[in-house]
Specification:
Blueprint lengths: L2 H23 L4 H25 L3 H29 L9 H20 L4 E7 L2 E6 L2 H26 L3 H30 L8 H4 L1 H13 L6 H22 L4 H82 L8 H32 L7 E3 L1 H11 L1 H7 L2 E5 L8 E3 L1 H17 L5 E11 L2 E10 L6 H4 L10 H6 L7 H11 L3 E5 L7 E8 L3
Length: 539
């Protein structure tokens, strides 16, 4: 066997493997089946050319050559149907009548190739050279191949021109590139040169099909990348088995036959186990990919719901705050006696309403701030601020609450001049309000002390404020979660059910945005707690 025939045999085996892969792994759509028919035609064409190239008997040469023309029709029609169905079914010139004409013309030309001397007039062997004499019907065959293949290319170019998905465009480009090169070489070597009386290069046409099959296979397989590994494993196992079977077929003696047969059986078993292992891996990957996709969709839905929740909270809070502020104002006026003298019972009832209204307003403020934080709409108006004056104002406002619970809050003024901080006074006021409110709420006797201190970290100066109360204290396990959204200490949750766990979360967010620190220390239940706030000193 000549070198060219060996090369063509290898190409044929490769084509058989790729065709089988697409056939068994494809979704059995019309495009895939049409492609399999194209590959089948290529295989028949390759085998017939090998026979034509290697033998010299006139009858064998004739039927091998006629079969190659039959294969050419199969390739052409298969590729035409493939072009019709690959992207948008119903291509140019794909009407039923056109199909009937193309198929009928192809069958007629194959019949002429086998039975008419006006197609193949004579074949002579002159050593290794085969001389082919063709008749006038051969020209019609050449025209038929060129016309049908051209229409297939027009379909692909039309898809590119009118726009398809980016991934589809890449696939079409691969198909057009591989097929065009093979078509040009096949028509030139196997039709045009034969028409001119030169058949010395007919073997190069089938060899060039490796480009067509390779490019199209890549384009088809590209639609399902997860199958690439199993496809590679199958091709590898098939090639190893073919090589070992070839060795078995040429065994020189029984010992070689047994040895080569054992290797072949081992390769088949190993190939089966390899393919099954890769298939299992791919199946697991696909399941993971499906779960990941479902998780992604769930996350997107949760994000959408969270945004809707934040929007609802923002709208509802805005609508609730205004009337509650008005209620608080009227209660304050009533308590002052503007509308007449009140009895002790009325004053006590109004005071309870006033306190509850304050709690509701604080809750709404926390919800509004939560909504702003989550939507990125928390804005600050930074200016030089005196933290000591701010603390004094807030404690003065809390006077009535302190008297009612018989508590006291002492501000210990520092021995050093209080430096100004760069802060948003309203936001820092809200933080101190929250800390003072907690100190009063969770302290039954005694009270709290507010102290100030100076601190330097990494060359940057901070003004610190600590609010130390004699209240119920905090368990160590609760401290690390205390500044988390909707989280409250276990003991606190049982004592006061109306809290939301938002106040400290919002406070931490505000302090973080001021490039400061907020944290808490407590030696445990019954031993009070100390809340620290540290803010950068203004330059």
């Amino acid at each position: 066997m000549s070198i060219l025939s060996i090369i063509l045999s290898i190409v044929t085996v490769f084509n058989i493997g790729l065709g089988a892969v697409i056939f068994f792994h494809g979704p059995r759509k019309k495009a895939d089946l049409s492609y399999v028919a194209t590959v089948l035609g290529i295989i028949i064409w390759s085998i017939s050319i090998i026979i034509f190239w290697e033998f010299s008997e006139p009858v064998v040469l004739f039927y091998a050559l006629a079969t190659s023309y039959f294969a050419g029709v199969v390739i052409t029609l298969g590729f035409w149907f493939f072009a019709n169905e690959f992207n948008t079914p119903g291509a140019l010139f794909s009407y039923p009548l056109t199909r009937v004409i193309f198929i009928s013309a192809g069958i007629a030309l194959v019949g002429f190739a086998f039975f008419s001397p006006d197609f193949i007039s004579a074949i002579r062997a002159d050593g290794n050279l085969k001389i082919i004499e063709t008749g006038y019907l051969h020209v019609f065959y050449v025209a038929y191949i060129i016309i049908v293949m051209s229409l297939s290319f027009i379909k692909f170019f039309r898809d590119l021109w009118f726009g398809v998905e980016p991934e589809k465009k890449k696939q079409i480009l691969y198909i057009v590139l591989g097929t065009f090169i093979t078509t040009v070489m096949g028509i030139f070597f196997n039709l045009v040169m034969v028409e001119k009386g030169n058949s010395s290069f007919v073997v190069y046409g089938p060899i060039s099909t490796i480009l067509m099959v390779g490019f199209i296979s890549y384009a088809v397989i590209r639609q399902n990348l997860m199958q690439v590994k199993i496809i590679a494993a199958e091709i590898f196992a098939m090639l190893v088995s073919v090589v070992l079977f070839s060795r078995l077929a040429v065994s020189q003696n029984p010992a070689d036959f047994i040895f080569n047969g054992s290797l072949f059986i081992f390769a088949v078993i190993f190939g089966y186990l390899l393919i099954r292992s890769v298939a299992k891996e791919i199946e697991n990957r696909e399941k993971i990919a499906e779960l990941a996709e479902e998780l992604k969709k769930s996350n997107e839905e949760l994000k959408r719901l969270d945004e809707a929740k934040s929007e609802f909270i923002s709208i509802a809070s805005h609508q609730l705050r205004s009337p509650l502020t008005a209620v608080k104002g009227y209660i304050s006026i009533l308590l002052e006696g503007t509308f007449g003298r009140l009895t002790a019972g009325q004053i006590e009832a109004l005071h309870k309403i006033y306190v509850s209204t304050e709690h509701l307003i604080k809750l709404i403020d926390d919800l509004l701030n939560l909504s702003r934080i989550e939507s990125g709409r928390m804005h600050y108006d930074f200016k030089k601020t005196n933290l000591l004056d701010l603390a004094k104002e807030i404690i003065e406002e809390y006077g009535p609450n302190l008297e009612k619970k018989h508590l006291r809050i002492i501000i210990t003024e520092p021995a050093f001049p209080i430096p100004l901080i760069e802060a948003d006074p309203d936001k820092i006021r809200q933080v101190i309000l929250n800390l003072i409110d907690n100190a009063i709420r969770y302290t039954d006797k005694g009270g709290a002390e507010v102290r100030f201190y100076h601190k330097e970290v990494g060359g940057k100066e901070y003004l610190g404020m600590v609010i130390e109360d004699s209240g119920r204290g905090i368990e160590k396990d609760d401290i690390e979660h205390l500044f988390t959204k909707f989280v409250r200490a276990e003991r606190t949750r049982k004592l006061y059910t109306e809290g939301t766990g938002l106040g400290l979360y919002v406070a931490k967010k505000i302090i973080d945005d001021h490039e400061g620190r907020i944290y808490v220390e407590s030696e445990g239940i019954g031993k009070g707690s100390s809340f620290f706030v540290e803010l950068p000193i203004a330059g």
